[in-house]
Amino acid sequence: MHYIEKYPLYFMTPRGDIATGEVLRYLSPMTADKLFHLLPIRSMVIRRGCLLVIEKDVREGVERGKRSLSTGEIAYSPLSKAIMVALCDVDVSHPVNPLGRVIENLSALERLQTGESIVLHVELMP
What is the pLDDT along the chain (126 residues), one digit of tens a residue? Predict the structure, then answer.
């Protein structure tokens, strides 16, 4: 069986801005695989301080859990059933599965407010 070791993850905002992330399978292999098969994801965002929360149940438990995220880091929270992006260095109250990092245009995500929509996709859509 062939596995994708990393894949791009595009975050598309309602303003037409695109932030580019990279999911690295080795960080949390089962979570990364399940996320890949759920894409594209359309959801609303919730701002929780330095965390951008995108609700989506990936149906995966804690895998290589950690309790702190650095700026731009992407993780999945089994407890919140949500994908999280750290907008600054932040400690979280429960273990999250690391997935990768935003590598381009984090500022597009910093401008999002609670209730705005977002689309996550593995390839750029027209």
Answer: 456 688 999 999 999 999 999 999 999 999 999 999 999 999 999 999 999 999 999 988 899 899 999 999 999 999 999 999 999 999 999 999 999 999 999 999 999 999 999 999 987 554
Q: Which domains does the chain have, with CATH numbers?
A: 6-121 (2.40.100.20)
Neighbours of 96 (CB within 10 A): 30
CA dist 126 and 45 (Å) reads: 22
Please, which residues have CB within 8 angstroms of residue 10's CB and are 6 or more apart in sequence? 18, 19, 20, 21, 120, 121, 122, 123, 124
